[in-house]
Queue: 4 jobs
Job 1
Amino acid sequence: MERQGSWPTSRSALLWAWGLAVGLAACGSTGTAPPKGSADRTAPAELFKGDIDRVVETHQRAIFASLRRLTEKLYRRNPRELRKAPQPELARAMARIYENPHAWRMAELENRRDIDALQLAFRPEFTGDRVAAFSVGMASMVQSAFGDRTEFFLLDSLDAQPLYNAARNVELAAWKLANSRGADGQLLLLSNQMGEVNNLSFEREMGRIIGHLDVLSEIASEKNPRTVVRVVQTVASTVFLPVRPSGP
């Protein structure tokens, strides 16, 4: 009888601890992107994470490490775009994109995010910072596929379809990055460089992101078995796929 009587108290304590840990995790996170480096596995919130949650967070951090490298490489290859930034210094421009709590909406990008922001980078008539448009578009699209979460807990679930669609969108974005030109025939953004020494580092970073998203889509399919509609993207269609989770 004592055990039965103590259960509500134990359950309440567990729920209270759950709420406290999640609250601490929310308060401790900064910016709109997951923090750099490895997660703090000694944090109280870790008590409410399973192995799959930690795997998801590891992949997410790896994706954002690639996104940060892509942004830095693009600014170095396209210094004219950095001069358009509100803070035209590389470190500040990077921090503004990946550290500030802006919910991926910036005035100079008309407060667009996801695919809408990404498309700005490839519009010849756009006169703003194309690197910011590309980076904000890519990062917010990925975060939309993650349900805008930077931490994952036992009760969270991922939708495989948005992750799969995001991977296909990155493939299309990589093609557009390498091929989109202005009215003068010049590339809108310089990336891979072909010559005596080929520089394919941009392509490799995009490939890493695609790989992580595809793995996560498979993990999500195993955990929550829904049929993933697999679409064959062609450069002729140039249509980005929706990435917002459909909900339960």
Job 2
Amino acid sequence: MNSRNWSRSVVTTCLAVAIVCTYSMVGLAAQQKPSGELSVVGEVSVNGASAISGATVFSDSTITTAQNSSAVVSLGKLGRVEVMPNSSLKLSFTDNGVSGTLDSGKVRFSTSSGVTSSVMTKDGNAVADNAVPNVYVVDVECGNTVVATQSGRVELRAGNSVKQIAAGSQDTAGTAQPGTRCTRLTRSTHFGSLSGGALALLLLGIGGAIAAAIIAARDSNEFNFGGNPIVISPSR
């Protein structure tokens, strides 16, 4: 073999090795990149493309659900994220944390102990305590932000305010949009905020006041017609 053919063989071999190494590194990187498995009900899109159950979801994907539709992203040891109907969530995750930016609708995060998680909205940021498992809902359907903790501990950070939300309780940030279904329900259910006993006492008091007014009016009509009362003697 002359020197020219030998040089060509060396170059060809080096190129082949480089190509193999490149594809191996790309494949290894793809395998190591965190991902989630998607389950859908109804019409769901990921990054603007229609999605089906079993699809792979990568970090920084935007999941959008239509009316009467929902999606669940299973993240293995990290936990799972549920996207409710009429919602849009940009979901990001690493090997030890999950975060989301909620533009509309409602989501439920369920995360394991040791996993950091948070949901950002226009009003603030809901941050879960990673020392314990957490299940919490973040809702922006009414224009404000409502955070409800089902288990674990969550902070709602809005401006300079930090609200601790224990399991079984909820808190809000921002103001509900005027004229929405939520504000109408709030105005029409003021009595609903009273306990059963307080509401009964209130209604009883109102009823008693009305009854007293009726009796007073009746007595006034029977015994005093605006002039001096007439006294009728039993004897002539």
Job 3
Amino acid sequence: MDIQPLICTQPADYAPIAAILNAVRPFRTTSAELAGERARWPEGSIAHLVAARDEGGRLLGFAEAYRFPNTAAGKFYVNVATHPASRRQGAGSALLKAIERFCDDQGGRRLVGEVSDTDAESLAWVQRRGYAVKRHAFDSALDLVGFDEAAFDGVVEGVVQRGIRFFTLAEAPQALQALYRLYEATMIDIPGYEAQSFMTFDTWRRVLIEGEGARPDWVFVAADGEQLVGVTQLVAHQDHVYTNHTLVDRAYRGRRIALALKLLAIRAARRHGAPYMRTGNDSLNAPMLAVNRRLGYRPLAGQYEVVLDLAAHRPLGRVQ
């Protein structure tokens, strides 16, 4: 078995990685999506990809480690995936050791990964190697075809009557800087969010506002006078639309603004013809979970966040 760095410079280079991910995850991705996502990573990010191949050169699995300039000190995100047909041959263990060694060399102290909550075998595998479960995150889906919009008649209008106005970024592109400040002030309240600092304006705009599938008319904003107080954003995927974030200023929570924003997004998604919407949830985010349940979202398979204290994992002082 050969463990070597994997260099990807073109979308097609990600095709074997996408094939492995599609074999182990409940949702599909494409090489173009993987390449586009990584192309939007901010300047100064650290990333490393390694691959395990058999004697014939066939890809058995891959591992990656990465961190962004604003990632919490000493923290690396890690991912290890082997094709189901290639498991129990040592590839996963070799890949994990290689990626841990890279993180160690880069000064990493805490490694954070994800394991599907339906994959008990993989969860046990990482736990045997020192990783501990810290949180549970999952997607939820809303059937747009059967959605009963009449059940929410008057919600948006009621919020407007209380002094809140709604618009899209396409209607007010001059609000971009203020919108960035709203994200910066509110994303720290998302359970599990941690960073040394919020991403720069240019990175935020490139990754979230101008990312693949994003549209300015799908960024829905709530304002009280000139103050922006809430936002939700849709992005297009192959067969559905996804809600990236729904954020409301602390002083304005509990006023049904998040519900109204989501209803505006649902209307846009239905006009677009999307059969369903997805969004991400954290098990500790009770207010947003309550909004989603009210709208009819149903939980899907999710991921456990698993964490390794790399310093404590060095019995001889260094990853071997």
Job 4
Amino acid sequence: MTQTAAPQRCPGCGSLLAAGDGPVHAYMLSTPACWQAFGALLAREYADPGLMEVHRLTVDSWAVQHPGDGSRRAIQSVGMHLCRLKLQLEHGFTGRRANDAMLQLGRLKSELPALPARASYRMTVADMNPTSGPDAHAAAVRRWARSTWEDWADQHAFVAEYLARSGLGPFSSTVP
């Protein structure tokens, strides 16, 4: 009889996924299974050009749920990806336009402070299905991104202020 290893909780997003060995991100803390699940989503999106519309939402959601090792680049990653989520979800930026804005945001990234990590998330990569059809995949990514953005609600005003200082505002956390 073969024994199955107990699931392992991801230190970033809290997902409970199969335990195992393997690669992980260089500075965003995760389990190998969480990193692999994220990679499967990315592969799905790269395989279907129609899914590139939601690709940056996938990247941003996973990134802010894995705040990392406390290094300067990990701190900057969370702040920058939160900004890109806001631009897409609250201001209607396309992924491409939000990515271009991220380049402008980079001028001030050294000013980003460490933001408090979340204790948990309502939706994580474990809730995603990389084999779903394109429409279902895109809808699930949008739900995940919206849920993740809402999980960071206490930082919305900070993100709006940072965007305004970078020249991409004036955005208010109350703007629909």
